[in-house]
Structure formats: C-alpha cells, structure tokens
TrEMBL record:
NCBIfam families in the record: T6A_YjeE
Gene3D superfamilies: P-loop containing nucleotide triphosphate hydrolases
Protein name: tRNA threonylcarbamoyladenosine biosynthesis protein TsaE
Family listed: Belongs to the TsaE family.
UniProt entry keywords in alphabetical sequence: ATP-binding, Cytoplasm, Magnesium, Metal-binding, Nucleotide-binding, tRNA processing
Keyword match Lipid biosynthesis: no
Localization annotation: Cytoplasm
Source domain of life: Bacteria
GO BP terms in the entry: tRNA threonylcarbamoyladenosine modification
InterPro entries recorded: P-loop_NTPase (IPR027417), T6A_TsaE (IPR003442)
Source organism: Thalassotalea agarivorans
Top-level taxonomy: Bacteria, Pseudomonadati, Pseudomonadota, Gammaproteobacteria, Alteromonadales
Pfam families cross-referenced by the UniProt entry: TsaE (PF02367)
Amino acid sequence: MANLHRLLQDEQDTVALGRKMADAVKHFDQGFVAYLNGDLGAGKTTMTRGFVQGMGHEGHVKSPTYTLVEPYDLGQWQVYHFDLYRLADPEELEFMGIRDYFSENSCCFIEWPEKGEGILANADVTINIAYEDTKRSVEIIAQTTRGENLVDYLKRD
C-alpha cells in the first residue's frame, strides 16, 4: 500500500495538509475513514480542523474529548470527528450507534482508534503524527484503494 511522509513546520502546515486531504475526498464517490495516532497535543485535532474547514465548515472546530463525537453537517457530506481517549470499553460505541456514522456520505476522523478496536469501520488511511523537535512528522498510510487515491493526490505537491 502507498504511504506519504511529511515534516510539517507549524500549525498552519498541519491545517493546510488537512485542507488538501479534503480537496481529494470531495471527489470520492463514497465515505472516508481516517485513524489518527499520536500523543496528546501532537496535532490530530489540528489536522481534523483543516479537513473540516476544507469541506466547507466556517465555525469553530473543537476536540470531542468529552462528547466522543463532534458532527459537522456540510451539505452532501457529514463529517464526524471522534476522540475515543476517554472510552472505557469499546461496547460503549455500540450503545451510541457507532455503525450509523459510517455511511456513503460520511467522513470519519477517529482519534485513539485502538480504544474502539473490533467495533469501528476499517480505515482508508492511518495517520501517524509525532513530535520531531519543534516540528511534526506526519505519515499517512493507505489501507484501501480510496486511501491510495488520497496519498497519490497528496504526493502531487
């Protein structure tokens, strides 16, 4: 499977990469699922903010640490930002109807996906974000054909 590695200078670079991902996903004919891995404060929500704004949202994008999910209704697309950090048991996701979030017109960005293992839809990409001095190292690993299409699009820079 294809992958991409980028070194991001700052928050603006992280947001810009999220926006570029949105540009690619807008051309997909189905939904999209991204797993986000990284330490607290690594930039998972910042990248998601760029994606949500790139899909057309103009308001604030906050971390769903306490609510588990923040929904964004963006015309033909639904974007769901999940933060499973505080999840005690993956079965809690079944009670909230998690499977209903994964549809043909939804994009799901899931922080701490290992906490929902066995319940979540499979990822199109896995995004690993890590500190590298004052910068962020981002690796995007394609898991599906849609993920490969995204990585190929991002490599055009």
